[in-house]
Task: inverse folding
């Protein structure tokens, strides 16, 4: 029975490793490849930590299992090994992990600065829209075509709900704010997340690499309907975005009468 | 209550005149002689005085233990309801669904606002009414006087009050379920971020339920604070002769450090709670208090009039996490201390690196105060702070790693006893490794940007709070049960309980890492509304089934616990052949604990030492005088 319990502690980390190994093929992994440049960097850092953590996990769990196995298989007449510890070992297992941990934190700094420090935002980025969260939807405000996005609303601004159109292939800035409680802008495929805090306007930037439709969900508890703040980010070429905004302008200005162009077309 | 106040006053007077004699280690019996009011050993006590409003630390500890075990089942039931919704969204719950239907949503179905209440109250009950009181309240109370060799706590009346302040808190938390006419309870998460928790119009449960929740939080805070003052005073002043600081068991060190954490961090939470109450007050009562600590201007919630203010919601997050991150260590350190004691005893070996263990606990506590910002990496605070908090958070992994290596070193080469205590302790170490390592992903800010508020976090903190702390508690219950009740628990049942809990636990929480990697956010009543999460339903069903198995396994523990109180095998003073002072007292100890006043000659972990061998045992009690003819040990 002793051996059974020692094996028990070998068995479960093995199962855990196998589950992790087959997870990507079963769809229990990231929701697709990262679709932004910072997303690729985030995934790279994730895999770096994953390698370090996996080695540590396997090492410590199997040493624990082996320590139990030794106890389970030893001669019962043999006494326990009397020791109060080892100064040398303590120093080794203080210094080695501390170097690894410092290495991990230093490796994060550049990416962190790139994502979050406003003065390090890409120079050629354009402010495309303001995203204003409210219970339980995302209100998108585009500046009037040809004008700059400002914090205040301007006449001619274009509004839409739960759908954000952004151009691909270049960094874009979105001003994030909330009308009521706290929300969080989370796009799993783009690996972007930022809380929308009442009273603050927080700029976030990302560049979408490929044309497509990506999820935008809420990641900060905002009330009973937290789960249903479902929106999408439509990434398309700049010309398609322009066309969309022109259409949006037309829709917004439509007054019910048929326009001259439509009349002449009949 | 007059008697209580009188006793309390006497306690304080006694300590102000003679208690703080720091020059010598004050002998227990001198500072707390038998002339005291509360030494009732010689006269008969009524049932109420003995078992209900008791001043005896052992009874208070057992009261805490029983209460928290009941609350554990309540919190577990709430968790299973959460799991039901995630596995079978919008389907009627079998059996209990009818019960919910009595006072809530339609026909036993979980409504979204009910769901937010479920996870809020699951966390609140588990954290404030189970984990914190079971460690500090139950084991702290029971073990501190016994392990340092004194007859009771420094302030017995304060001690009793700390237990009885739990009950108003439980009543407040309980009321919060029902005060909104049964439509919704507090549903703002245990973190209660404003403005959701600040403006009553923000959510169905943000009115009266949130107020009751805040009152409950304040009351458990008062209870903890009274406990920690008491523990600090007792440990500093009332150790038995010869019990120097570095001869204290690691359990006592951990309780001491935990009490310091509580005493310094808790006032911040209490203050923040009152700030939130003041913010809310004018909407609840017709008062002139119109504070706007957390309310900015021009916020329109639920089509109400725009707010007037100039407050900052981020302030709450800073204040809340300034308490609640140290609180994570309050929920962990005592279990670490107790497991160190138990592993040494079950391996028949001294704790590997006793002093590094003490220093690493102190380091965890110290660093614990400067890492709170890692809960706020996506909150919009200054990114420079993010870098600082990332580095300090990485550094706190270091003392944790040292502790893991020392525990493995303690087991290494030992004469292992494979009972359920040992298995639960080994499970504790194994689970702590997982919880610690998954923490590194979240300490790294860029990676955390993706993982923040996903199920990866849920997996991580359950590995720490359940996998680590509760497995430590399972071991501790069995280990100190003989001292509490004079009988032992059935080891075979405990092994089954361990196996089912351990397998159930890992099947429940390990896959949650994968849910997090797949991007499933926390606190979603129906994640499958989103296309990219639809395929996770089978995994969530598997998790729910595992959680149910794990939940029902706890009945083995409860059954064994209550059966053994009355029918367990009777045991003597020292059933585990352990070294600590508590094992020199009778089982269970009478009022005043020790029939022979203990004098301490050595540290608590001298298993298999040359001295022990000289007297033909593999252990040597701390009270045994130096054995002649054996060279004294070199200092470590």
Result:
């Amino acid at each position: 029975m002793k051996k059974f319990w020692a094996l028990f502690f070998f068995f479960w980390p093995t199962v855990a490793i196998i589950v992790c190994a087959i997870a990507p093929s079963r769809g229990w992994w990231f929701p697709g490849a990262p679709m932004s440049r910072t997303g690729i960097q985030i995934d790279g850092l994730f895999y770096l930590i994953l390698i370090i953590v996996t080695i540590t996990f396997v090492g410590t769990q199997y040493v624990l299992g082996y320590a139990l196995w030794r106890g389970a298989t030893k001669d019962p007449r043999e006494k326990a090994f009397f020791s109060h510890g080892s100064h040398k070992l303590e120093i080794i297992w203080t210094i080695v992990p501390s170097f690894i941990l410092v290495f991990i934190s230093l490796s994060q700094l550049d990416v962190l600065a790139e994502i979050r420090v406003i003065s390090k935002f890409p120079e050629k980025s354009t402010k495309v829209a303001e995203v204003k969260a409210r219970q339980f939807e995302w209100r998108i405000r585009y500046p009037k075509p040809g004008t700059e996005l400002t914090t205040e609303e301007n006449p001619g601004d274009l509004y839409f709900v739960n759908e954000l159109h952004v151009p691909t292939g270049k960094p874009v800035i979105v001003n994030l704010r909330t009308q009521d409680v706290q929300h969080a802008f989370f796009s799993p495929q783009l690996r972007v997340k930022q809380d929308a805090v009442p009273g603050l306007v927080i700029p976030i930037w990302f560049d979408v690499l490929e044309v497509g439709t990506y999820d935008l969900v809420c990641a900060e508890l905002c009330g009973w309907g937290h789960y249903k703040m479902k929106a999408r980010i439509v990434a398309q070429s700049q010309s398609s975005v322009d066309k969309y905004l022109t259409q949006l302008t037309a829709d917004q200005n439509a007054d019910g009468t048929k326009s001259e162009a439509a009349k002449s077309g009949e | 209550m007059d008697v209580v106040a009188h006793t309390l006053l006497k306690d304080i007077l006694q300590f102000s005149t003679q208690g703080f004699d720091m020059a010598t280690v004050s002998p227990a019996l001198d500072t707390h002689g038998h002339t005291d009011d509360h030494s009732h050993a010689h006269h008969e006590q009524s049932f109420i005085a003995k078992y209900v409003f008791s001043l005896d630390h052992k009874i208070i500890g057992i009261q805490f233990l029983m209460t928290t075990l009941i609350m554990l089942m309540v919190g577990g039931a709430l968790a299973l309801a959460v799991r039901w919704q995630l596995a079978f969204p919008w389907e009627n719950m079998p059996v209990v669904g009818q019960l919910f239907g009595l006072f809530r949503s339609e026909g036993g179905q979980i409504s979204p606002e009910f769901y937010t209440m479920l996870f809020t109250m699951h966390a609140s009950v588990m954290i404030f009414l189970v984990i914190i009181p079971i460690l500090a309240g139950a084991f702290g109370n029971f073990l501190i006087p016994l392990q340092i060799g004194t007859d009771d706590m420094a302030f017995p009346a304060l001690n009793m009050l700390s237990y009885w302040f739990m009950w108003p808190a439980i009543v407040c938390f309980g009321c919060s379920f029902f005060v909104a006419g049964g439509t919704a309870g507090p549903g703002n998460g245990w973190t209660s971020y404003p403005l959701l928790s600040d403006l009553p119009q923000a959510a169905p449960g943000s009115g009266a339920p949130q107020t009751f929740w805040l009152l409950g939080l304040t009351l458990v805070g008062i209870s903890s604070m009274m406990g920690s003052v008491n523990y600090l005073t007792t440990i500093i002043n009332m150790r038995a002769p010869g019990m120097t600081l570095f001869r204290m068991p690691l359990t006592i060190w951990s309780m001491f450090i935990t009490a310091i954490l509580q005493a310094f961090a808790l006032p911040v939470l209490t203050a923040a709670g009152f700030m939130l109450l003041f913010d809310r007050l004018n909407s609840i009562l017709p008062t002139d208090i119109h504070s706007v600590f957390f309310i900015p201007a021009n916020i329109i919630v639920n089509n109400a009039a725009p707010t007037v203010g100039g407050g900052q919601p981020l302030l709450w997050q800073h204040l809340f996490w300034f308490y609640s991150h140290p609180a994570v260590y309050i929920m962990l350190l005592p279990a670490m201390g107790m497991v160190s004691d138990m592993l040494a005893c079950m391996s028949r070996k001294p704790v590997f690196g006793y002093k590094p263990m003490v220093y690493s606990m102190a380091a965890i506590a110290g660093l614990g105060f400067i890492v709170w910002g890692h809960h706020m990496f996506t909150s919009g605070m200054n990114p420079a702070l993010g870098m600082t908090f990332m580095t300090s958070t990485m550094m706190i992994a270091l003392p944790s790693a040292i502790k893991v290596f020392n525990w493995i070193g303690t087991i290494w080469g030992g004469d292992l006893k494979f009972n359920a205590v040992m298995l639960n302790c080994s499970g504790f170490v194994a689970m702590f490794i997982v919880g610690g390592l998954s923490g590194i992903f979240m300490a790294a800010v860029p990676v955390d940007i993706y993982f923040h508020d996903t199920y990866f976090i849920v997996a991580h903190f359950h590995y720490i709070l359940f996998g680590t702390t509760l497995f430590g508690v399972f071991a501790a219950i069995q280990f100190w049960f003989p001292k509490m009740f004079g009988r032992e628990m059935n080891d075979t049942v405990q092994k089954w309980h361990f196996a089912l809990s351990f397998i159930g636990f890992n099947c429940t929480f390990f896959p949650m890492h994968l849910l997090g990697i797949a991007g499933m956010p926390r606190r979603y009543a129906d994640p499958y509304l989103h296309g990219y999460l639809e395929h996770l339903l089978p995994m969530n069903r598997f998790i729910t089934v595992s959680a149910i198995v794990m939940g029902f396994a706890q009945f083995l523990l409860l059954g064994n616990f209550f059966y053994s109180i009355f029918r367990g095998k009777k045991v003597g003073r020292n059933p585990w052949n352990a070294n600590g002072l508590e094992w020199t007292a009778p089982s269970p100890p009478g009022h005043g604990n020790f029939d022979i006043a203990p004098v301490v000659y050595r540290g608590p972990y001298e298993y298999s030492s040359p001295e022990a061998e000289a007297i033909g045992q593999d252990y040597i009690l701390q009270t045994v005088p130096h054995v002649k003819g054996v060279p004294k040990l070199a200092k470590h």
